[in-house]
Design goal:
The chain is an alpha+beta fold. It has one domain. The protein is 31% helix and 33% strand. The strands form three sheets. Strands 1-4-7-3-2 form a five-stranded mixed beta sheet. The chain has a two-stranded antiparallel sheet with strand order 5-6. It has a two-stranded antiparallel sheet with strand order 8-9. The longest helix is centred in the N-terminal third of the chain and has 16 residues. The radius of gyration is 25 Å and the shape is elongated.
């Protein structure tokens, strides 16, 4: 899979629009920091590529490291001690060139005859580090919103208030328990 800078921008935009994902990402980073992973070479140079993606038992985040900035695998051993799963993959990053001359531009001719100028891309090797962290480390934050699926969210407090209001108004719910007969529960 080749990675483009548009993927990086989309990931950052998605996280900045949702406070609960940002809070979760901050908790994720706190766990990595508390494990002293940043003391190892190049771990602080990572950029968010994907995530946080919530699974049933794990939260998954993919980090991008450009060029020869592969993070030290000894730092990953610290995460393994916390029951995290860490995978390294080598990939290619495509990024647009800075346009300085006409040689840095591709000219496309559209079907209607007009021209479209597009910056040429450069490719460079990169490392993708996928970290799957158990949810018990990240679920400690106090969020009122839980992700149902990628774009729909449920406010738990409103749902609980609405549920209790329905029970009171409709007379629903569990009736009060009658006292035991004879004091022995018979």
């Amino acid at each position: 899979m080749t990675i483009s800078t548009k993927m990086l921008n989309d990931s950052i935009k998605k996280i900045s629009e949702t406070n609960s994902l940002l809070d979760m990402l901050c908790e994720f980073e706190k766990v990595i920091d508390d494990a002293d992973v940043y003391a190892y070479k190049n771990w602080d140079k990572g950029e968010l590529l994907e995530g946080p993606d919530l699974g049933r038992h794990f939260v998954t985040v993919k980090l991008l490291y450009k060029g020869k900035d592969m993070p030290d695998p000894d730092g990953a051993k610290r995460l393994l001690n916390l029951e995290c799963q860490v995978k390294y993959n080598k990939d290619t990053l495509l990024s647009p060139r800075k346009v300085m001359t006409f040689d840095d531009v591709d000219v496309d001719i559209r079907p209607d005859g007009s021209q479209r100028y597009k910056a040429k891309t450069t490719s460079q090797p990169c490392w993708i580090v996928e970290i799957k962290m158990p949810r018990r480390y990240v679920d400690e934050f106090d969020a009122d919103v839980v992700a149902v699926d990628e774009d729909n969210y449920v406010d738990q407090e409103k749902a609980q208030e609405q549920g209790s209001a329905n029970n009171i108004a409709g007379g629903g719910g569990v009736p009060p328990m009658a006292p035991p007969i004879g004091g022995l529960g018979i």
